[in-house]
Write a structure and sequence with these properties.
Layout lengths: L1 H27 L6 E5 H7 L1 H29 L5 H48 L3 E5 L15 H12 L3
């Protein structure tokens, strides 16, 4: 009978020790989730690709605007006939509409391409840094609170610019 009691105690103690061991293991050795955030506007504006696309768009815009300015100047000339003025006015209106359409489509298309590139670089960045979630926010408007220690905006911006430049 005494042997039976010792056997039960030994079994109970073994189970308790195993339970404590597993509890300690899961409490102290579970992987932590890495969550960081970035300021989307700083990322977009600071990205070299954005600056290059903006310069290209401004160059195209300025050349189209120069053409419109010449048309407008010709329209103001007192030496043109009524039929020429009507034709120039139609060209001017069409050119102005095309310029407005260019502005809208260029900005939308370029933004899509830029965000696509930022996203692909961000995925690589996350894998290298072992981040499981990067939250993007415009000037922290969607984030009620975030510790400044988890703001990786500048780090991600440096990373994507180096990747874009092939470094």
């Amino acid at each position: 009978m005494l042997k039976n009691v010792y056997s039960r105690q030994f079994l109970l103690n073994s189970l308790l020790i195993s339970y404590l061991f597993f509890l300690t293991f899961f409490c102290f050795y579970k992987p932590s989730i890495e969550i960081v955030y970035v300021d989307n506007q700083k990322i977009f504006d600071g990205f070299v690709m954005t600056k290059e696309m903006k310069r290209a768009g401004e160059k195209e815009f300025n050349s189209r605007k120069l053409f419109l300015d010449k048309l407008y100047s010709n329209l103001q000339s007192p030496t043109i006939s009524g039929s020429q003025k009507k034709e120039l006015m139609q060209q001017f209106i069409q050119g102005k509409e095309e310029l407005e359409e260019f502005n809208q489509t260029f900005a939308a298309e370029q933004s899509t391409q830029i965000w696509s590139r930022i996203k692909s670089y961000s995925i690589e960045f996350s894998k290298e840094k072992k981040y499981q979630l990067i939250i993007g926010s415009d000037a922290k408007q969607n984030i009620l609170f975030a510790d400044e220690n988890i703001d990786v905006t500048n780090e991600l911006l440096n990373y994507i610019n180096k990747k874009y430049e092939g470094l």
